[in-house]
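subagent[fold] <- orchestrator: predict structure for attached chain, return tokens only, no commentary.
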Amino acid sequence: MLFDNELNSMAQSAITRLRARSVGIIFQDPLLLPGLTALENVVAGLLPHTGWRALQSRAREILQMVGLGERMDFAPSRLSGGERQRVAIARSLVGRPRLVVADEPTGQLDTESTGRLLDLFERLKRELAFTLVVVTHDPIVAARAGRIVNLHAGRVKD
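subagent[fold] -> orchestrator:
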């Protein structure tokens, strides 16, 4: 069950649409397309589901919110690691998801950049009202969580 939708009874295409509308995903590696600008990378993931104009406006707004307003026309190769991760965050938020899942989002960042990114997550959660689930092995990241669930061998560990 996800957002009152019984996933087992849904067609794959309906699940794909639900995920695109309701869930943002951030990976450890930002997975940006090198031939696209930051703005284009933010828009690209939802193009099959929403038109360019609507997404472009929202993408610009989100890139401003993550501090990349002046760099949205830059290729990923011209961005720092932290900036690339912020593009990935913007990409996850452009569709106004209710849930954002981040897999080791600070794994490629130094301690200072990690702190700034965690501060950014807290601000964005307040301003955009989404639930954030972070998967991490980093005790610094875990210490900032509102709730910690430990897993061992695929099971919740008390």
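orchestrator: received. Logging for downstream: The radius of gyration is 16 Å. The helical segments are 12-22, 38-44, 52-65, 81-93, 111-128, 139-143.
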